[in-house]
Amino acid sequence: MPGACDAATARAILEEMRGDPAGCRVFLELGRPDSAPAAAPPNPFAMHAIPLAGVMAHTGIADASRLATYLGAINELYRTATGWPGGIVALDPRGMLYVHEATHRCIGELWGHLAEALSGEAAALPAAPRPDSGVHGAAVAHPAAAAAAAAPSGEVTCAPPYHIAHGDSA
User: Fold this and answer.
1) How far is 79 from 68, CA to CA, in rounded Å?
2) Which of 25, 76, 114, 133 is the most exposed place for a label (fewest CB within 10 A)?
3) How close are the terminal C-alpha atoms of the chain, in Å?
4) 89-91 and 156-157 beta bridge pairing
């Protein structure tokens, strides 16, 4: 059974994945807001099911073994951060990922903080010309901002000291 991840551990995992946009996307998918169930009373044993196909579609990772490598790295970072022998995500043979409900909530809240921080950065930038038309469009964030994560303290987080063995980066 996957372990529960608190907010500090979620931030620590994301910080370790910093600089790997695909790894950050996989991690944040574990807290995808639109996959949240209706409000339910807290349950220390509640698991949140996430379809593997949805994670693959949302992250753009079409190779299941590559996705499994990212999930393994996330579990290893959890073990390193907490000292617990398990992980925060499990996969079943039917193609469902499972995370503890508390983990899903913490990562979802972290995602919300990131979205707020990034939307504030994008709003502060001038409108950029569209390359295809020369017409000025909406404000766009700096390319590095898409891979960045901001902790509630305002510290910029989300590039990695860990290594994923794959030939390309999504």
Assistant:
1) 16
2) 133
3) 29
4) unpaired
Burial of 143 (0-12, 13-18, 19+ CB in 10 A): exposed
Report the distance separating Cα 127 and Cα 124, nearest Å: 9
Which of helix, strand or coil describes residue 43? coil
141 Cβ partners below 8 Å, 6+ apart?
A: 118, 121, 122, 125
> Does the pTM of the predicted model rise above 0.70?
no
Torsion over CA: 159, 164, 166, 170 (sign): negative
* Cα–Cα distances in angstroms (integers) from residue 44 to residues 26, 40, 152, 153, 161, in the given order: 24, 12, 26, 28, 32
Pairing state of beta strands 47-51 and 89-91?
A: unpaired
The answer to whether 137 and 84 are in contact (CB under 8 A) is: no
Query: What pLDDT, in 10s, does the model give residues 69-101?
Result: 999 999 999 999 999 888 899 988 899 999 998
Strands 96-100 and 89-91 come out as antiparallel
- Identify whether the C-beta of residue 67 lies closer than 8 Å to the C-beta of residue 170: no
* Element holding 117 (H helix, E strand): helix 101-124
Look up residue 129 and give its two tokens.
């010309």
CB neighbourhood size of 151 (10 A) = 20
User: How much is the pLDDT for 109?
Assistant: 92
